[in-house]
Amino acid sequence: MKKKVLSILLAAMLGTSMLAGCGSTTSSSDTAEETTETTDETVSAEAETEETTDDSTEAEEEVSAEEESAEQFEATTVTIYAAASLQTVLTELIDVYNETQPNVEIVGSYDSSGTLLTQIEEAAGDGIDIFFSAAQKQMNTLEEDDGLVVDGTRHNVVNNQVCVITYTGSETTVTGLEDIANASSLALADGSVPVGKYTRQALVNAGMLDEVEDVSTITTGEVSAALGGIEINECGNVSKVLQAVAEQSNEVGTTYYSDTYGYEDQVEILEVVSYDLTGDVIYPVAQVANGSADELESAAAADFIEFLISDEAKAIFEKYYFDTDVE
Question: What is the distance between the alpha carbons of residues 116 and 310, in angstroms, rounded to a whole number?
Fold first, then answer.
């Protein structure tokens, strides 16, 4: 009997041991699965971290590229000789340019394109970095005859139109170019000034002046005689024409449309002369072969020209009544 009880107890103990062993196996399996899942999640997290790092690196490279493209010049001075009719718009353009290039000082000298051309020729380009003319003729001379234009830097920037103006409240009977002889006096730029040349061209094409090979050679006296002896105030540049009319020194005058910007309360436009009569009034710009300029100055000059032909600059030109639809 004791042996039978002992056998039963041994069997019971063996069963309990086996059950305990089975429980232990199940727990190890679950732990293995959890470990595998944890490992997978870790690998996934590491992969995401690598992707994020790659994206960050790419973003940093893009920012670096942008910063490089907008790299500021060291301190330098660029001298630009520009037509008088560009002075107002260039003042704003220079301010905008200096927002990204504060170390580049742009110094402007403004007068008639013919006068500026002579000054550049006399200096053989030294001390002058950019020429911005109100006509192709002067730029052609600088490039083709004088060889003082840096290759590949010439661009046609804007177009303009000649206007017949009078001062506000003048009560003139003049309506435009056709009856301009009815005025008591006329402010007119001389033939060497682009606006004076374009006015003469318009008078020729309108049949009011005789045709000649070069209209810029038509003297002020000849214009007066063709218009019935009208008194003419010969002006050295377009700004002087505008001032003569705005100050009521002359009843009418011919200026550029762009020059009337800011004078809307002082002058009245009687006629915007069509391109059919004047031809295009193209303003070209180019870098001058300045023998005294160092590498930094030359690079800054080229950069400013690139800004002048940018879309940002075009929007500013248009605000000042320039036509940016040029070829």
Answer: 25
**Which amino acid makes up residue 12?**
A
- CA-CA distance, 95 to 157, in Å (whole number)? 18
Scanning 180-310, the segments in alpha helix (DSSP H) are: 194-205, 220-226, 238-246, 275-278, 295-308
Alpha helices in 70-186 (DSSP H): 87-100, 113-123, 136-140
State the virtual CA torsion across 126, 129, 133, 137 in degrees, nearest 10. Answer: 50
Instruction: Quote the CA–CA distance of 318 and 158 in Å, as a whole number.
Output: 9
Q: How far apart are CA 276 and CA 287, in angstroms?
A: 31
Q: Which two tokens stand for residue 98?
A: 């200096």
The predicted-structure confidence for 42-72, as pLDDT tens digits, reads as follows: 545 454 545 545 555 554 544 444 444 469 9
> Mind listing the pLDDT tens digit for each residue in 258-312?
999 999 999 999 999 999 999 999 999 999 999 999 999 999 999 999 999 999 9
pTM of model > 0.85:
no
Tokens of 245: 């009319």
